[in-house]
Amino acid sequence: MTITDLLPEQLDFERPVANLAGISADATPFSALALVRSTMTYDASDGIPKLGLGTWQNTDPEECVESVRYALDLGYEHVDTAQAYDNEKYVGEGIERSSVDREDIFLATKVWIDELAYDDVLSSIRASLDKLGTDYLDLLYIHWPAREYDPEETLAAFDQLYDEGTIEHVGVSNFEPKHLDVARETLDAPLFANQVEMHPLLPRDELVEYARRNDIQLVAYSPLARGEAFDVPELNDVAEKHDVSEAQVSLAWLVQRENVAVIPKATGRDHIEDNFAALDFELDDEDVAKIDGLDRREREVDPSFAPW
């Protein structure tokens, strides 16, 4: 096995890779590729890493700690949590137990809708930082434009956190174009990302175009449509063609879209590895056209306070 056997042409590694000599001759392709990826260093100038670990519903203390640790040691560079997930402490412990330096991790959390008044944003983020065991965040989101959200007041607090260096990037979540317009007009800091439900059954083409036009990153949550993607015949066909899982097909379709990153949630090692492997193959034009042509539109996340 050579290193070129492990790096398909479609993968564009621009970050420094070290320790290639550490790959043994009898390493499996997956373990060798994981070692290669684990030596890469996150650089904020690269933007948001394309694949991250989602942690929604990951509330068992030891399971959450271990899943975060394992994902980071495998090569993930992006971890996503939220105040409402009630697991920031465990995410922080997982980061601490991993072999990856904090500055090489893109860490994001979200302010819940009850904490969006100016003073509440600032105090709740101090609590989040303490739980996460860090003094800064790579990205901070407004979780929903709901309840206590007021563009002038809430975004002023985000500007304050950005100006003092507590957060590297300002983000929003579950914002539609009309909300994005107001946020961009109100913020002094650049609007960096919008995290939304996105998967082959909810492609969000309008938001993808808006993000491309305004240089905003889209971050896709629930990228497997909460399991519905496993039973879509077109995804089954593409998965069989490439000898991969339906999850990998859905994730590959998302990361190949312009300005889109993805944060599938996973707790077990097998799912963490399966999702990670989605970076290692490329859908061809026929595959993409088949998925783009799906005529089903299904939203899985639709709380009563949603803005649509």
Oligomer: single chain
Q: Would you identify the regions where 5 or more consecutive residues have pLDDT less than 50?
A: 1-45
Number of helices: 12
Taking all Cα atoms into account, the compactness measure Rg is 19 Å
Protein described:
- This protein is α/β, with parallel strands linked by helices and 308 residues long.
- It folds into two domains: 1-11 and 18-39, no CATH class; 46-292, NADP-dependent oxidoreductase domain (TIM Barrel, Alpha-Beta Barrel).
- It has helices at residues 3-6, 29-38, 61-74, 88-97, 118-132, 151-163, 177-186, 205-214, 233-242, 246-255, 269-276, 285-292, and strands spanning 53-54, 78-80, 106-111, 139-142, 170-173, 191-197, 217-221, 260-262.
- Strands 1-2-3-4-5-6-7-8 form an eight-stranded parallel beta sheet.
- The longest helix is centred in the middle third of the chain and has 15 residues, at 118-132.
- The radius of gyration is 19 Å and the shape is globular.
Entry summary:
The protein is an alpha/beta fold and 308 residues long. It has 12 helices and 8 strands. The chain folds into 2 domains: 1-11 and 18-39, no CATH class; 46-292, NADP-dependent oxidoreductase domain (TIM Barrel, Alpha-Beta Barrel), CATH 3.20.20.
